[in-house]
Amino acid sequence: MLRLLVVSGVAAAVVSIQLILPSLLVVVLPRWPFSANKQPPPKCVVFNFGDSNSDTGNLAAGAGVRLHRPMGRSFFGKPSGRYSDGRLYIDFICERLGLDHLSPYLESSGVSFRHGANFAVAGATTGGAAEGTPFSLATQVRQFRHFRRRTASLRRRGLGSGIAMLEFHNAVYTFDIGQNDLQAAFTAGLSYHRVVDTIPAIVTRINNAVTMVHEAGGRKFLLYNTGPLGCLPSMLARWSRRGGGGGELDGAGCLVELNGAARAFNEQLGRLCGELRGKLANATVVCVDMYTIKYGLVANHTAHGFSDPLMACCGSGGPPYNYRAGETCGSPKVKACADGDRRISWDGLHYTEAANRVVADDILSAEYSDPPLQLQTLCASTS
């Protein structure tokens, strides 16, 4: 005869199970992981705003844009809505933090928002005259505020993402945007000085976005500055065909003027980070030097195991840049290189999975962060 006796001690959160057998064997299960007076560690939640550098599928879902092979070939085995052969740097960061890949906010099916949401949209700008899509930074922030309100409403009925208000409060809010503003200005034919004149307005719009999220309860912010625009094969190819002024190259083979504008933007964004720290109550603001990370990939490519740092893997036209507008990656007859894991540029505008992995590692090291606060620590902290 087998009798099962369960004795529950609620105060100590201990459950003991005694099995009375002929041999008087007693089995006691271990203590429940959390005692009655101890709370579980906070769940890491991330909300991201930006452009194609971190878009995990919003443009594909929101605008019905269909990406074609060989997009996504290195990890997903098919196009995933990402402008890369595989994972983006934000995917690697989520993996290292123990999170799901961030689902695109605009995707309606088969997604989970339990670890946050991604509002970044390929082609997005901060807004203003350079606006190229309906999903500007201001729109993304409005979408987030709607998501937050809707989550609170649904959670009372046991529906929705399940993110609690305290988790919104303790979430990390990341911003990676501004590159398209500069790129659009140069592509429109503006001179270097006129492009630089647009930067204060771009930075003001980023300031407004961060402030709006802070007003909605956000307290932990990570701002990425922009990468070396003049090292993109698409811009190098355009300038080489255009001729005229502004085509001077630096020692790494990158366009001096375009990188100068990127650095001017980053200088002003860095000042904004300092201002936000003084202005936003109880907030932590970390600024990450994406420019130095990505320029280092190009200038020191052999040290990272890369070759042909200024040539697109998937494109047309051949050396030196393998980029031709209208015959870009995913177009009929456009082929990708066989050694994508040794290339930095995937399609002339975006990075390969291999390069994104290095970028993510550098971000997580905090070596390029001001202050040098590791994202793992920021994510686990409470505001």
TrEMBL record:
Keywords assigned: Glycoprotein, Hydrolase, Signal
Instruction: Give the CDD domains listed for this entry.
Output: SGNH_plant_lipase_like (cd01837)
Q: Which superkingdom heads the taxonomic lineage of this protein's source?
A: Eukaryota
Keyword Methyltransferase attributed: no
Give the Gene Ontology MF terms in alphabetical order. hydrolase activity, acting on ester bonds
**What family, per the record?**
Belongs to the 'GDSL' lipolytic enzyme family.
Q: Which PANTHER family match?
A: GDSL ESTERASE_LIPASE, ZINC FINGER FYVE DOMAIN CONTAINING PROTEIN
Instruction: Name the chain's protein.
Output: GDSL esterase/lipase
Native species: Digitaria exilis
